[in-house]
Design goal:
CATH class of the largest domain: Mainly Alpha
Number of helices: 11
Number of strands: 0
Helix content: 40-55%
CATH superfamily of the largest domain: Cytochrome c-like domain
CATH topology of the largest domain: Cytochrome Bc1 Complex, Chain D, domain 2
Largest sheet: none
Distance between the termini: 50 Å
Number of domains: 2
Strand content: under 5%
Order of helices and strands: HHHHHHHHHHH
Bound molecules: heme C
């Protein structure tokens, strides 16, 4: 029994420690040269189906890179990219992209009202919680809880991800947090909240 407790304590310590390790942003910048074709030099991708990484939390970037590598998140393009990366490379890449500045987009004016309602209040009728509860009032997310920043993210990328969570094709969200959220969203609500997030800051 005592041995089990010691092992559990060690596991908690090492898992906490691995996120506490400081990344080397300069090394991350060098490593990021293979990422720029899609995510751009400063992490603000120009193609709206490729996510912006600029200003994203290092903890979330490291989690996603690990998930792609382990096959917990499936994407052909990213699977090839993460194959050669070590854990330290991922931490350095996270340090680099998280310190870049996100560029903001703008929401389609006619969708702001519906989008804002979902983001700030959810939909009581269908049990959708407010996005703000986890992603923050300005879309800044939470690096400790590993809730990603959403502010300024491409609407097209956001809506692809929400549809993938809804169809359970993306299932790397702890405790099904996002699958539960996306389950009852309508197509219109997905489009509107994605537009809203693109201009959110
Ligand atoms: C050929 C294009 C391409 C290249 C090169 C590429 N990526 Fe990606 N990346 C993508 C696409 C597409 C996605 C979205 C995958 C999906 O829809 O699940 C993505 C997603 C990501 C995500 C998840 C972002 C989020 O908000 O969840 C991270 C982190 C990431 N890439 C980091 C990198 C890093 C680091 C490199 C370089 C080592 C890299 N990518 C190279 C296309 C690319
Ligand atoms: C209970 C907390 C919680 C709530 C509420 C929540 N999210 Fe999330 N969201 C998460 C977590 C955790 C992740 C990261 C999952 C992972 O580790 O891959 C996430 C990821 C996402 C992503 C993927 C981001 C990316 O860069 O790939 C999008 C888009 C998203 N959420 C949108 C929303 C929207 C829109 C709402 C409201 C309708 C919402 N979320 C409500 C916790 C939440």
């Amino acid at each position: 029994m005592k041995n089990y407790l010691i092992i559990i304590c060690l596991l908690i310590f090492t898992s906490t420690y691995s996120f506490a390790v400081e990344g080397d942003s300069a090394k991350g910048k060098t490593l990021s040269q293979t990422c720029t074709a899609c995510h751009s030099v400063d992490g603000n991708s120009t193609n709206p189906i490729w996510p912006k990484l600029a200003g994203q939390h290092a903890s979330y970037i490291v989690k996603q890179l690990n998930d792609f590598k382990k096959g917990n998140r499936v994407n052909g393009l990213m699977a090839a990219m993460v194959a050669p990366l070590s854990e330290q490379d991922m931490i350095d890449l996270g340090a680099y992209f998280s310190t870049q500045k996100t560029t903001l987009g703008a929401a389609k004016p006619e969708l702001i009202e519906i989008g804002e309602l979902i983001y700030r209040a959810g939909d009581h009728k269908t049990g959708v919680p407010a996005c703000m509860a986890c992603h923050g009032p300005n879309g800044a997310g939470n690096p400790t809880a590993i809730y990603p920043a959403l502010s300024g993210q491409h609407a097209e990328y956001i809506s692809i991800q929400l549809n993938m969570f809804k169809a359970e094709k993306r299932n790397n969200d702890p405790n099904k947090m996002m699958r539960t959220v996306a389950r009852s969203l309508t197509d219109l609500q997905i489009e509107a909240v994605s537009q809203y997030i693109q201009g959110l800051h």
